[in-house]
Amino acid sequence: MGNCIGSGEEVSDLAGAEVAVSSYVEKRKGYPETLTAVERTAMATLRAELMRAGVAGASWGDDYELCRWLRARKFDVPKTLLMIQNHIEWGVKYDLEVVYTTFHHADNQAVKGAYPRAYHKTDKVGRPLYIDAIGKLDINRINELATDEQMEREKIQDMEYTLRVRYPACSKAAGRMINQSLVIMDLQGFSSSIWNSQTRAMTKRLTGVLSDHYPETMGALFIVNAPSFFSAIWSFIKLFLDPGTAAKISILDHGFKKELLKHVSAENLPVHLGGTDTSFDWNYDQGPWVKGGKDQGPWANVKKGTVTFQTPLIVAAPRRRRGGPCCGA
C-alpha cells in the first residue's frame, strides 16, 4: 500500500503542517470563513427555510452548524433542508434525549474490553482524537454482551456526548470553533474471521447513522496496521460512503507513525501509535472536556439505570455575530 491512500482535500490541507491551535486559520472549502457569495446565500436561505418550518434553537442559528449540514449536501438547500427534517423526525422516533441520558450496557466495561475505543486528548488543531482498535474486536464476546440495536444506541449516545460536551470543551480550549474529530483506526490483529456477515451489516448500519445524522463530524480518518486483504474490505465499505467522506480517509503503510505525528503532537499520541504519551488508557477519556484528568465518557456514574453526565466545561462553543465569519474545525 502507498503511504497515503484515499487522501483528499480534508487530509492534505492539514498534512505536515506544524500548526499551533491558536494560529490555525481555516482554509478548507465550505466553512464559514471560506464561503463564496453563492454559498453564503445558500446558508441564509437555509436559515430562513428552517425558521419558516418552525425549526428553532441556537444550533440551527450558528453558521458553523448550518455549514456542516450544507457541506453534506453540497450546499443544495432543498436537499439539506430535507436531511435536517429527516434528522429531527429520526430524533423523535428514537427518543434521542432518553437514549442520551439513560442508555448503558448491562456491563459497560466488558463491552469496552471486547471492543476497545477511547477519546484521547486532541490533535494539533484542537480536534478530539478518537482511537478505535477494531483489530482487537472480539465479535463473539460482543454478541454475548449486546444486540446490534444496543451497539447502535451506544454510538448515538456517544455522538451526542461528543456534540454536546467534547466539542464545546475543545472549542473553549482552542479559542475557536471545533466541531470535528480526528480518528485513528488501528487494525493490528484484524483477521478475516472478524469481517463476517454480522460485522458487514453493522458497519453499514452505523455508517448510515453517522452519514445521515452526524454529517461532517469526521475531520480525517487514518487507518493503520491494515492487513493485505483489507483492500477488498475497503472496496465494500466505500460503497456506503459519501465521496466527500471517503476522501477524508487515508490508509497508511508501515511508516504511519511519522505521518500521524504530522497531525498529533508526540505528547498527545499514545506510544503504540508512535507518540510519547504513556498515560493512554482504553478505559478512560482524556481531553479538555474532562475535569480532573480522566472519565469514562457518557457511561460514567451510572446510577439506577440513568447516566449522570459530567457537567460540560462550557455550555456553548465560542460564538460570533450571526452572519459574520467563524471557524469550522
Count, helices = 13
Quick one: overall form? globular
| Adjacency order of strands in the biggest sheet | 1-2-3-4-5
The count of β-strands is 7
Which terms would index this structure?
7 strands; single chain; alpha/beta; two-stranded antiparallel ribbon; globular; 329 residues; five-stranded mixed β-sheet
Quick rundown:
The protein has helices spanning 9-12, 37-52, 58-61, 63-72, 77-94, 96-102, 108-114, 139-145, 148-174, 197-213, 230-237, 243-246, 256-260; strands at 117-122, 128-132, 181-186, 218-224, 249-251, 302-303, 306-307. The protein is α/β, with parallel strands linked by helices and 329 residues long.
Word description of this protein:
- The chain has 329 residues and is an alpha/beta fold.
- It is built from 13 helices and seven strands.
- The protein has a five-stranded mixed beta sheet with strand order 1-2-3-4-5. The protein has a two-stranded antiparallel ribbon with strand order 6-7.
- Helix 6 (96-102) packs across helix 9.
- The protein is globular.
- Residues 1-19 and 301-329 have low confidence and may be disordered.
Walk me through the topology.
Layout: H1 9-12, H2 37-52, H3 58-61, H4 63-72, H5 77-94, H6 96-102, H7 108-114, E1 117-122, E2 128-132, H8 139-145, H9 148-174, E3 181-186, H10 197-213, E4 218-224, H11 230-237, H12 243-246, E5 249-251, H13 256-260, E6 302-303, E7 306-307
Parallel strand pairs: 2-3, 3-4, 4-5
Antiparallel strand pairs: 1-2, 6-7
